DNA sequence: GTGAAAGCGCTAACAT
DNA sequence: ATGTTAGCGCTTTCAC
C-alpha cells in the first residue's frame, strides 16, 4: 500500500495553518508561534505520525545534525570503546552518529571519506591510527571538506592538521618498560604490529627506549598482524623457534597480548609463570584473562568524548590533546 | 575562509554543460551521455573536488542509501559482532550505516526510532533483545515507517511483525544442559538477567527444561544485570552466601559468565576445578579466558549479514530466520 | 544526447 | 504572530 510519509504540508493542512507556521512550531524557535496554533500543529503532527524529513531539512538549512565516524574494525574492543565515547558525546550534543568501517584498507578509507563528505556531516571523526605515511589523497579529501566548513577530529594519530586527541604511546611504553625492569625482568621480546602503523612503531620504540635507560635491549622483535590472531601466530612462532632466554613478551596492544597468552596455553605453558606478558590499551578483556594482563591503560572512552568536543569547538588552531596513560601491573608479570 | 562546497552547477558550468547532463554523467545511468561530455564532466568534478550532496539527492529522489542500526551498547562484544556483520552486508549493498545506541532504555529507543525515521533510511535494523513486552509505542513508530515504504529487520528478538533473524535460545540452552549432564554434572545454579529480557528468560527456561528431562532441577537461580559486572556481583553474592552443593553455574550470556569467573578468582577459587562455568554466545573472549569458556555458539556476525538481506528482500510476509547454534564444550566444564 | 523547467520537503527572509 | 515567496542542490519529466 505504501502511502507516502506525511510531509510538513500535510501537517499544516491538517492543522489549518501555513507550512511556515507548522515549520516554526515543529522545528523552529518555538517562541514565535501562538500557544493555540502550536497545539493545533503538534496534535496534527501526532495524529499523522509525522517525522520531519531530515534530508530536506539539511538541504534547506545547508547543514546536518550528524557526525560521521570512521573506524577500522568495529568488532575490535579498542575501537568499539572509542566509538562508545563518541556516541556519548554526540548524543549529548544532539547529533546522530553515522559510522563507516575501513577494514584497515587505505583505499577504502579514502573512498569512505569521499562518500561521507557527501553526507555533509557536521563533523568527521577518524578513529585509530592511519595506515602509512602516504596520506596525500586522504589529506586532500579532508581539506576539501574542511574548506567547505566541515569539522574534523582525529583520534589516536597525531600529524594531521586537525584537532587531535591522542596519548603518548612512546612514553606509555617507556614507563611500562621501567616498571617491568623494576620488577626484576631483564630479557624482553617485543611483539609488534606492521611497521606502517604509527601506534605500533611508537610503542615499540618507547619500550626499547625505556629498556635502554636501564642498559638493556630487546632480545628479539617479532612482527605480526595487529590482531589477536596475529599475536597468537607470532607467539606460536616464537615458541617453535625456541624462546631461548626471553622472560617477558611485550605486545604492542592487548588484543595481540591476549592472542599470545592463548598461544602460550595452547603450548602447555602458563602465562605469567613460564613466560610473562604485557600489553597496551587496557581493554575490558584485560582483567578477564587469567592471569590478568599487565598493560598501559588508555582512556579510550574519554578519548572518544574528547574528540567530539574538539570537533565541535570553534577554534582556528588545531588543538592537540594528549590524555595521560598509566601503567597497570597485574598477574601476567609477577615480580621476579 | 570557508568557501562553499562545489555544487553540481559549479561542475556543469566548469564543464560547459547543463546541470542535467552533469547529473546524468555523475550519478545517473551513464549510458545516456556522450563519451566526450562524460569526460568533460568527470574531469571538472575531479578538478573541483566535487562530492554530491547526498541530502539533496535524497530529497530529490525521495530515498536514501543508508541503513540505520539500533543497538543497546556498542562496546558490548555481542552487539559489536552483530554490528560488524551488518556493516559488511550494508557495504556489499552499497549502503552507509548510521548507528544509534539506546543504552537499554526503552524510552531512548523509542525516541531514536523517531529521529531515525526522519533520516528516511532505506532500512532500520534493530539489534538485541527488546526490553519488556510493552512495545506498543515502538510498534506504532515502526509501522508508520513501514507504511511509508521503509524496511525493517530485527535481530535477536522474535515477536515483531518484521523480518527477523534469531536463534533458538531455549533449544540452545536445552542442548547445553544435556551436554553438561552427560559430562556428569548434577547440581546447577543459573545466573540469569532481568526477567523482562526475552533472551534471558528463554535461555534460563531452556536450560531448566533440559535438566528436567534428566529428572533434575536447578539448585538455585540468581538474577543480575545482563553485564559483566552483573555476573561478577551475582557470583560474589552466591559465594558469600555459601555456594553449597552447586557444581556448575550457567550464566545466560558469556559476558556474565566471564564476570562470574573473575569473581571466582577474586575469591581465590579456580574456575573449572572448584566450580564449573558455562555461558552462552561464544563471544571472541570466550577462548581468551582461562580455562576457556564452555558456551553455546551463536553466529553473531552472520546474523547481522542475514538481517540486512532480510531487510532488503522484497517480501510481503515477514520472514523468520532461525540460525543454528552449537554447544561448545571447553575447559571451564571438565568431565566429572 | 542534451537542455529547460518543474518539483522533492523544508527553511528563511520578507511582508503584513 | 502568521502567510507568501524564494530558494537549498539535486533529479527527472518533457521537449527538441
UniProtKB/TrEMBL annotation, chains A, B:
<feature type="domain" description="HTH lacI-type">
    <location>
        <begin position="6"/>
        <end position="61"/>
    </location>
</feature>
<dbReference type="InterPro" id="IPR000843">
    <property type="entry name" value="HTH_LacI"/>
</dbReference>
<dbReference type="Pfam" id="PF13377">
    <property type="entry name" value="Peripla_BP_3"/>
</dbReference>
<dbReference type="GO" id="GO:0003677">
    <property type="term" value="F:DNA binding"/>
</dbReference>
<dbReference type="InterPro" id="IPR010982">
    <property type="entry name" value="Lambda_DNA-bd_dom_sf"/>
</dbReference>
<keyword id="KW-0238">DNA-binding</keyword>
<dbReference type="InterPro" id="IPR028082">
    <property type="entry name" value="Peripla_BP_I"/>
</dbReference>
<keyword id="KW-0804">Transcription</keyword>
<protein>
    <submittedName>
        <fullName>LacI family DNA-binding transcriptional regulator</fullName>
    </submittedName>
</protein>
<keyword id="KW-0805">Transcription regulation</keyword>
<dbReference type="Pfam" id="PF00356">
    <property type="entry name" value="LacI"/>
</dbReference>
<dbReference type="InterPro" id="IPR046335">
    <property type="entry name" value="LacI/GalR-like_sensor"/>
</dbReference>
